Amino acid sequence: MSVLHKKVISNELAEKMIMKAKEKAEELNIAVNIAIVDNGGHLVAFSRMDDAPILSIDISQNKAYTAIAFGIPTHEWYPLIDKSPALKTGIVHTSRLVVFGGGYPIKLDGQVIGGIGVSGGSEEEDRLCCEAALKVLNHVLQK
Amino acid sequence: MSVLHKKVISNELAEKMIMKAKEKAEELNIAVNIAIVDNGGHLVAFSRMDDAPILSIDISQNKAYTAIAFGIPTHEWYPLIDKSPALKTGIVHTSRLVVFGGGYPIKLDGQVIGGIGVSGGSEEEDRLCCEAALKVLNHVLQK
Amino acid sequence: MSVLHKKVISNELAEKMIMKAKEKAEELNIAVNIAIVDNGGHLVAFSRMDDAPILSIDISQNKAYTAIAFGIPTHEWYPLIDKSPALKTGIVHTSRLVVFGGGYPIKLDGQVIGGIGVSGGSEEEDRLCCEAALKVLNHVLQK
Amino acid sequence: MSVLHKKVISNELAEKMIMKAKEKAEELNIAVNIAIVDNGGHLVAFSRMDDAPILSIDISQNKAYTAIAFGIPTHEWYPLIDKSPALKTGIVHTSRLVVFGGGYPIKLDGQVIGGIGVSGGSEEEDRLCCEAALKVLNHVLQK
């Protein structure tokens, strides 16, 4: 009777990623919300930079959730549904689903170990913050 | 004073249909969520295959619900609302309504006895899994 | 592969029961809300008498739902949970559960075919209205 | 940078546990709802036996959720909160928290790999069904 073996993001790793996302946001001169969830979509760490929009607190968390809940970055959703009018009209009503950029699954050895969501800047800026944070993974992989 | 007589899916039949949907999913090399509801839309059986997307747990159940709640497969909804801009804009906000493929009413002798919803693959793949499960009905009808 | 056979309340029978509940309410000089649901808990008929309290619209429907969802009259819930402090503290938070009188399963040949809920009078009065309506069943049984 | 390593219940193991819970319910002559969730509280498998109460569909799932969400069986909650009037009054409003028996964490090597919830019988009966299902774990441990 098989049991699945999963790697899951630790609090230490999550905090490190948030730090890196913040550094990128400061470099871009923006204030954002950053959320990290585990592979079950539950919040591990969160940080709202001074003056980051309140509206984006939930969006950042929903982006991280969406990323782990389907295993792809949120910016890949729109091209996917754009081909099917039915999906485009319907699936956007799914609770917590975000179909625009700024959410990424955090992967290690091909496995989703968590998710990151950034919200508060432009879609482009939010993605840059996520990508900066994801580079922390390289250090984990090298060990 | 008339009373209505309804046939309703049994737990045994629901479990058998889930098994068949899983077999099809394995054949297609995908991992999906499968939900079976009774004619009142209440969950009878559910199974999430290993690594099937979490996002699709609710979608599969909502597809099954939509199927019994209106008596048509979910992929028939979009062509229906596409003709009316008002419907297309408005009715998609209906709670639990899914307007894309992967949900089918389970019918016996022309009566809706339950519903099946599959989610996790492409729309096409989800439908194939449902259709494989629905073939179990033929055995019921032959008896 | 078994299929279940269920009797379900018809619209005609539901309307007849509402008429009887109203007659009883008029006799008691009260104004109530009366809800009839099918065996899946879905509303079949509803009537709010002039000046019946708005607060009781949902309560009447929840009473009818509770009755079919567990198969016992709502006034039997409190004696049941009163013996167990854990149940008494916890189960009352269940969505739509009503643990006071005024909801009854509608049974035919031992099967739950629907539910009735009345709200707007005292617990005692609500129950009397339900019981007056349930007498309609005798006519159905005699046929 | 540490990553956590988690064992998680598989679909195969979940289905096996549901089968065992059903066998126990049949032995007890009751009809119940059985829900198995993974360590993130997401549904893996569910089965409602014929004529099991609809009210208990959500309760069984919430019991399984509560079990993984705090790591203790649901029947241990009431003695815990009974000592503190504030907790007893307040914490029961927590979304999805069940403070009565019938939910257990599924543990392997001291780790919570999922949760089981049974609802539809008495608290005692629901617990017996869970415990029968949990015996499947012994086979996993022996391998």
Short description:
Four copies of one chain form a homotetramer. Chain A has 143 residues and is α+β, with helices and mostly antiparallel strands. The first copy, chain A, is 45% helix and 24% strand.
List the helices and strands and how they pair.
Four copies of one chain form a homotetramer.
Chain A: E1 3-9, H1 11-28, E2 33-38, E3 43-48, H2 55-70, H3 77-82, H4 85-90, E4 103-108, E5 111-119, H5 123-134, H6 136-142
Antiparallel strand pairs in A: 2-3, 2-5, 4-5
Task: Describe what you observe in this structure.
4 copies of one chain form a homotetramer. The first copy, chain A, has a 4-stranded antiparallel β-sheet with strand order 3-2-5-4. Chain A has helices at 11-28, 55-70, 77-82, 85-90, 123-134, 136-142; strands spanning 3-9, 33-38, 43-48, 103-108, 111-119. With 143 residues, the first copy, chain A, is an alpha+beta fold. Chain A has one domain: Beta-Lactamase (2-Layer Sandwich), CATH 3.30.450.150. The radius of gyration of chain A is 15 Å and the shape is globular. The longest helix of chain A has 18 residues, at 11-28. In chain A, helix 1 (11-28) crosses helix 5 (123-134). The interface between A and D is medium-sized, with 24 and 24 residues. Strand 1 (3-9) of chain A pairs antiparallel with strand 1 (3-9) of chain D. Chains A, B, C, D: InterPro entries: GlcG_carb_metab_protein, PduO/GlcC-like, PduO/GlcC-like_sf. Chains A, B, C, D: Pfam families: HbpS-like (PF03928).
